[in-house]
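Toll-like receptor 4 (Catagonus wagneri), 841 aa
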Amino acid sequence: MIPRICLAVATIPAMAFLSCLRSETWDPCVQVVPNISYQCMELNFYKIPDNIPTSVKILDLSFNYLSHLDSYSFSSFPELQVLDLSRCEIQTIEDDAYQGLDHLSTLILTGNPIQSLALGAFSGLPSLQKLVAVETNLTSLEDFPIGHLKTLKELNVAHNHIHSFKLPEYFSNLSNLEHLDLSKNKIQNIYHEDLWVLHQVPLLNLSLDLSLNPLEFIEPGAFKEIRLNGLTLRSNFNSSDVMKTCIQGLAGLKINQLVLGEFKNERILETFDKSVLEGLCNLTIEQFQIARFGEFPDDVSDVFNCLANASVIFLSSLNLDGLEALPKDFRWQHLEVVNCKFEQFPALKFNYLKKFVFKDNKDMNTFIEINLPNLEFLDLNRNRLSFKGCCSQNDFGTTKLKHLDLSFNEIITMNSNFLGLEQLEYLDFQHSSLKQVNEFSIFLSLRNLYYLDISYTNTHVVFHGIFAGLVSLQTLKMAGNSFQNNLLPDIFTELTNLTILDLSKCQLEQVSQRAFHSLPSLQVLNMSHNRLLSLDTLPHKPLHSLRVLDFSNNLIVASKEQELQHLPRSLAFLNLTRNDFSCVCEHQSFLQWVKDQKRLLVGAEQMVCTQPLEMQGMPVLSFRNTTCQISKTIISVSVLTVLLVSVAGILVYKFYFHLMLFAGCKKYGRGESTYDAFVIYSSQDEDWVRNELVKNLEEGVPPFHLCLHYRDFIPGVAIAANIIQEGFHKSRKVIVVVSQHFIQSRWCIFEYEIAQTWQFLRSHAGIIFIVLQKLEKSLLRQQVELYRLLSRNTYLEWEDSVLGRHIFWRRLKKALLDGKPSSPEGIEDSESNQHETTAFT
């Protein structure tokens, strides 16, 4: 019993000690940048951690439990520049809580239920530029002690309980204030006296955001003669009448940018009357933006009349029609129309418009010509438009265009070479389908173009002059297209100023040796996601300025050592990751090169082997050269043994047939021959042999007895033995019928080679060549000896004509009679034949 009591007594102080420990002692903050940036989010801290270096500049303490900030809470971090205290359950901030933070520029207090805020809570912040106090139970700006923060540029007090828009007098000290966010508060009315401080001390760079406040009334003249950089009023009005009244209350305001509209999830107005914006005629507006009014008037000309002198107009998420009806003398210089609905593309006619952005719009199919004589910048991307003809001055009504973006559209038919658009500098067609690109040099006139993107345009490059004329081009992106025969040809001849070239995902298998010879300024080349099998660096040798080369995601197995020497010396980054590297001794030099060039190779550690099987998935850097150090003597002996065996086999094979011929010559040399000639021919020429050769020689006068394999070879005997014993040994002559089929037949060539040996052993000319058809020299040269014999000796040529046939048979029979034993019948027939020949001649 006593030991248990002692154990309990000993345990109590230990538990008490552990309960006093805070999580910060064993749950360290994440060190984002050593000694500079620390993230201590959601670590259940109850006090400021003391294990962070004093040199920290960025500190995130959000989502902890720092309910009370005492004086000098952060004095241990004098270099602090950014402090995030979001949702730390802070209720009390004492005087001088941030004292000593002379370099702090951003303080975030979002989501803290502050109940007690001392008058000197923000003292000691001489460099503060951004203060975020969203959702901090703030009820009035008067009680917010920030009047001394003269460097403050941004004040965000959104989502609080502020009822009055009255700007305290201390705002006159905030001469650097640029942005005041009062959105999502309780402000209903704005009176002249609320803006008294702005009348006394104008803040010309100030932008106000009053969105999501339930505005009901703005006193007329409250903003008169006030100059603001910006004013945002979104989802503020519960009816068109209230909105109309409040806009009229803005009379006399001079503003750089006015934003009206609603938010996607905060729609209030059900209707939008065209008279709502009439009050804008009493404002001086440089830029105007209106967004997300579902029911927009059909006649937009009346809606925008009061904005005729504005310079910049933004229209977003509206149902618009009739823009083409707007007067062309509107002084708009910049018009952006984004995510709106149209029945058809608006055929605009504005005399002063210089920049037109029309993107992500819906319900249109075809581009319609516009007339904008001063237009310099045109962005029509992501509209799913089709262009029946592109591109020329007639399409856009201008000759001043410098920027043209037609990306992410449908079919664009290129039937013009940019006539009248010679000033273009930027051109983007990516993810649109280009037609007729290969029919002529479509870019020939664009000598000022420095950027061209035709990526993923279904372009199949066939025409080598596709980029002719682009002498100033610096960036060319053509990923996701294809080339004829999957070969990159020499198509960049005139692009001598090119610095960036993207050829990724082009299904390339080969690169022409002169593909890059005219690109001395190229710095970045992307060849990734192709089908290249080897790292052929010779084409890249002329790229003297190349810095970045990407060969990732190809099928590269290795590279020869001599090829690696052609890499440009200027190269700083080479990416070979995700290839099919073969980690075998055959590629030992390449694998060693990879180890030596780790600094050059991007992600060298991620280069893995795909073969052999035992190294699949292992890093290339793990390959060891010692595995290749097999005894050179063993290799040499093995190679020599294989070589000797192979040579011996070849000699035995050759000697066997020669021996058979030699033995046969002794056996049959003194006897009479059974056949006048043995015929060597291809089985595909058998019809000619049967119908012409056999019929004319065996049935003619005198008759000749031919040895034919289909008739005279003995069944059951090997073909080679039949050829030698029945063919050569029992025949006086050999007739070789040469044709294209003959040259391509292995058996025919074998028989011909035996015939040469047979002729050598007989010591007299016994081979008669018949060329059945004219042969291409390239095909004939495949059999060198046959080619030489035909070049040096007389042969017969078959001609299927009356005269040609007569001469052919007379010459062939004469050759066969040479050496034939004479007989009275034969002499008689020969004389008769001679008589017929003389008579015919």
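The first strand starts at residue 30 and ends at 33. Residues 662 and 761 are 7 Å apart (CA to CA). ok done for today
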